[in-house]
Design brief:
The chain is mostly helical. The protein has 28 helices and four strands.
Length: 703
């Protein structure tokens, strides 16, 4: 007996779990006395809690769902959107120490501490909250689609409209396979284009679901909001220790179940096309070596300005705790990412004909392979993993809101007043996340846009930490210009039909044919290209035209083959700049377009920051700047009183650590590596190499 797609045993697992999480938040409520308790858990987190906090915040279920979606849709090349952080591990080792040493509560306070600015922190808070709400919206949508895929309606209970939708999708899938293999009859091309437009617009699907968005969002938000609103960051860290184990369980449980269903690795490998096993992409999708390298660069700079850096590292007892927990959580996520990628391939091997939306691959796999009880564990794991991310995000967003948007307007109130204001803000952020989820049509397109958006503050924060010459005027100019070019215009301009339907902006790349290595079929043997079935030969694969300036380009009226084209999704202003610079975008492969997007986003902030800093000055800030950099050189001590005493020594003698400068006599504040720095860096590099080799070896085994 099912209750709206769930077995009663699943509910017996899920409901007690949810109430346990709520109880933890209620119990911690009485221990919150000040803002630092609510926002940073009193800076008292040890390595155990800090590890699970970092792992839980990074390894949300949406990462698993998105990785499986990308891999199902694009093969192993798509895994790099989630696995790219494996290359930034050594950087995380240093970054964790920086943000613990700065001894602040929010990332926005960096600008106040370094420039004595009160307006710039408010701008950071506004932009940071907006970006984080986009991420929350991704999480909501991924969770919704997974639950919908796990609660599919039997066809006999579907309405007539739902049946027609499912039948149309089946027809589209058959025509799409024929088109990509070059076998589509010319008389069917218009029908195919019409169905392709309906699919991209989300109007056809492989199934209907019991899960309704309204009720899902209401119940899900209620439980997340309850414990984090009551317990703040301490509740987030405590529940993350429980949810960390759930993350590991739900990440690996599908692998043995999939292999049993398939009948072993041999059958699995026979069902996966060779082009889906190219680690650096096949060239027919966005993820080749060039776009991956660009993504590494833009990610490394972008994460430096991430809104959660101060909370995730500043809550640790000392900087070594922050460093070990940071890279421990980051690398654990990378290992889990490989498991998530495998699940995407398993979904393709088992259910590629019945999965209409790649975002639902994880849910379909779970529903079909897990029995009662196990499905309940999976649901609890998905909820737990998402809660472990959303709870931390909500707390550091509330800190940004209260300290930089609310306090400047409502001054001189009690600590309890500001904590209650934070709680109200958390509820509002959760609701805004729902709005983003409802209005966003594709997860993968939004995820690809985030690295560019993170550059808005990633670049100035990186320079702020190490370059004395950086000026407030340069940061203001860069933030305003890049916010307009990378954030505001890409979202606002597509609202206007004239922009959405512009003949210039709806241009697409040329259809191309790529020769890819694949095993020969009996048909290949019969017509001559191969001597034996299974022999590796190069076969032509059609790369369809792709939108250049939009995520997708479709006809306005799917029924009219002469209808004008319309762009869907984000407007890629980076590629408009590239076009103005003379790049031939129409002749590029998708990976080339993504490479140009990321490189433009990476270079653009520094075009404003460095030249303007060199021709401007921040008069009267000499003492502030000196105190900032000597504080950054002063190691953190676990005892707050001893740490404060060390800081006073540094302020009294600003040249105390000048002998540690790597480039004495310059404006650059890089320091010589300590023994801990050297060990941490090389251990991080070794772990990075191990994970890459493990991933490569696994692919070789599959291939």
């Amino acid at each position: 007996m099912d209750i709206l797609g769930f077995h009663p045993l699943d509910l017996l697992i899920l409901i007690p779990y949810l109430f346990t999480i709520a109880y933890i938040g209620k119990k911690i409520y009485s221990k919150i006395h000040c803002e630092e308790d609510f926002f940073l858990a009193g800076r008292s987190m040890n390595k155990f809690y800090q590890f699970f906090l970092n792992m839980g915040t990074l390894s949300d279920a949406n990462s698993a769902i998105r990785t499986a979606s990308f891999t199902f849709h694009k093969g192993l090349g798509g895994v790099w959107l989630m696995l790219i952080g494996v290359f930034t591990g050594p950087y995380h080792w240093f970054m964790a120490a920086w943000f613990r040493r700065v001894r602040l509560v929010t990332m926005a306070e960096l600008f106040e501490d370094r420039f004595r600015s009160r307006i710039l922190p408010s701008i950071y808070a506004f932009v940071g909250i907006w970006l984080s709400i986009l991420i929350m919206g991704i999480g909501y949508k991924a969770s919704l689609r997974t639950f919908q895929a796990m609660t599919i309606k039997p066809i006999d209970k579907c309405t007539q409209a739902e049946r027609q939708m499912v039948e149309a999708y089946g027809r589209y899938r058959n025509l799409d396979n024929d088109y990509k293999s070059g076998r589509l009859d010319s008389s069917l091309k218009e029908e195919y284009k019409k169905l392709d437009t309906l699919y991209k617009q989300g109007h056809i699907s492989a199934y209907a679901s019991y899960t309704k968005p309204f009720w899902f969002y209401l119940i899900y938000t209620m439980f997340i909001g309850f414990y984090v609103i009551l317990g703040g960051f301490k509740a987030a860290a405590t529940t993350d220790t429980i949810q960390g184990f759930l993350i590991i369980i739900f990440s690996v449980i599908l692998i043995p179940a999939s292999l049993i269903k398939l009948g072993g690795w041999g059958e699995f490998t026979s069902r996966i096309p060779d082009h889906m096993l190219f680690v650096f992409g096949s060239g027919s999708n966005e993820f080749a070596w060039n776009s991956i390298a660009a993504l590494v660069l833009v990610t490394m700079i972008g994460i430096t300005g991430h809104q959660g850096n101060m909370s995730l590292n500043g809550s640790a007892r000392d900087e070594l705790t922050a460093q070990i927990a940071n890279i421990g959580g980051a690398y654990t996520k990378r290992l889990l990412t490989i498991a998530w990628a495998l699940c995407g391939l398993f979904a393709f091997a088992l259910y590629r004909q019945s999965i209409s939306d790649p975002d639902m691959a994880w849910g379909i796999l779970s529903r079909n392979l897990l029995g009662p009880g196990l499905r309940g564990i999976m649901i609890a794991g998905i909820l737990g993993a998402n809660m472990s991310t959303l709870d931390a995000v909500c707390v550091y967003l509330s800190a940004l809101f209260v300290r930089h948007l609310y306090k400047p307007l409502v001054k001189n109130r009690s600590q309890r007043h500001y904590i209650n204001a934070s709680r109200i803000a958390i509820a509002c952020f959760l609701l805004l996340g729902i709005y983003v989820s409802v209005t966003t049509y594709s997860i993968i397109h939004l995820v690809k846009a985030l690295p560019s958006l993170n550059m808005i503050f990633g670049a100035p924060v990186l320079l702020l930490l190490f370059w004395k010459r950086l000026t407030l005027k340069a940061v203001y100019t860069e933030v305003i210009a890049c916010s307009i070019l990378l954030a505001f215009l890409p979202q606002i301009l597509p609202v206007f039909a004239s922009v959405r339907q512009s003949e210039w902006l709806t241009r697409q790349t040329h259809e191309q044919v790529r020769l890819l290595p694949m095993p020969a079929s009996q048909e290949d043997v019969a017509i001559g290209p191969a001597d034996l079935a299974g022999q590796r030969i190069r076969k032509p694969v059609i790369v369809p035209p792709a939108g250049i300036y939009y995520d997708s380009v479709v006809r306005i009226d799917p029924d009219d083959e002469t209808s004008a084209f319309e762009g869907i999704g984000r407007l890629h202003t980076e590629l408009i700049i590239a076009d103005l610079l003379g790049f031939d975008l129409q002749s590029m492969m998708p990976s080339g377009l993504l490479t140009i997007r990321y490189l433009i986003a990476c270079v653009l902030p520094f075009v404003f920051l460095i030249p303007i800093s060199l021709v401007t000055r921040d008069a009267g800030l000499e003492e502030t700047i000196t105190r900032f950099y000597v504080k950054m050189k002063t190691p953190v001590l676990p005892d707050p009183q001893e740490d404060a005493a060390e800081l006073e020594k540094s302020y009294a003698d600003p040249t105390r650590f000048d002998h540690n400068k790597l480039l004495p006599g310059t404006h650059w504040e890089f320091c010589k590596w300590t023994r801990s720095d050297t060990i941490g860096f090389f251990v991080s590099c070794l772990i990075t190499v191990f994970i890459i080799l493990f991933f490569w070896g696994l692919i070789r085994m599959i291939a």
